Amino acid sequence: MTVDARRPGLGSWLTLIRCEAKMVVRDTAGLVVPLGLPLLILVMNASSAGGEVVVNGRTVLDLYVLPLVLAIIIATIGVVNMPSFLAYYRRAGILRRLSVTPASPAMVLIAQATVSALQTIIGIGVALAVAVLVFDANLPLRPVTALGLLLLATAAMYAVGMIVAAVAPTPNSAVAIGLVAFFALGALGGLFGSREALPETLAMVGEWLPFGATVEVLSNAWAGTPIEPLHLMSLSVTVLVGGAVSAAFFRWD
Asked: What is the pLDDT of residue 26?
């Protein structure tokens, strides 16, 4: 008897995405931290930062706290959460088994990226809602630009996450490497205070790296000021380099 192999249809894609979403929901830490940590930082800083106008009617809350909070959401999901799931699938042999079926292992990557993107949207939406409705924060003066920059920043953080997934041999090591990468990028990008407190060389490096560049471009979008080409170049190069490195080193088993 001959069995015809068929490519998965829309129903298969939706089922896989639904299963990925259930996995994320069951991972309590991976679900709570990307939403809870940024909200905690927002609540702790919003009251004192909301009354000081900096430029174009935008306050410290709009130009510094909110961009930082959004960068944390994107980075925790892209650099820490997503790689741990992919490392688990590889360790469990799921990707290897899929490689001999019409359902390509790439489907898992796409489904996980889709669920991560949905989680990012929810996290950003909740943070903006709390900032605007509770603390009277302002929306960006250039909303379309801000949206495009959020997409670019998300792609850059996911590229870093794919490098982590490519080099991490186990799920635990993926979490460890992801956390180290997150805190290293964050520390140099203003997570623990203004970069001005860092030595000049480290402050400059932090501005070039994706976390610091994300904070800077979002701050410019909120203020309505020109975007520095250096920051756009940093995020774009991160996407390209991350894609190339992960493609070279990623293994399905």
From this structure: 73
Measured CA distances, 93 to 32, 81, 105, 145, 212 (Å): 27, 19, 11, 41, 36
Q: How far apart are CA 12 and CA 92, in angstroms?
A: 21
Sign of CA dihedral 204, 210, 212, 217: positive
| Percent of residues in the chain assigned helix, strand, coil, to nearest 5 | 80, 0, 20
- Provide the pLDDT for residue 15: 75
For 9, 63, 225, 243, the CA distances from 66, given in Å and listed in that order, are 40, 7, 16, 28
d(CA 200, CA 197): 9
**Interatomic CA distance for residues 206 and 80, integer angstroms:** 19
pLDDT in tens, 114-165: 888 888 999 999 999 999 999 888 999 999 999 999 999 999 999 999 889 8
In single-letter form, the type of residue at position 168 comes to: A
> Which residues have C-beta within 8 Å of that of residue 24, sequence separation ≥ 6?
30, 31, 81, 85, 115, 116, 119
Q: How many residues does the chain have?
A: 253
The 10 Å Cβ neighbour count of residue 248 is 9
3 pLDDT band, cuts 50/70/90, is very low
Q: Kindly report the average pLDDT of the chain as a whole number.
A: 84
Two structure tokens written together for 195? 């970069």
Please list, in sequence order, all residues whose beta carbon lies within 8 angstroms of the beta carbon of residue 89, skipping any fewer than 6 positions away: 95, 108
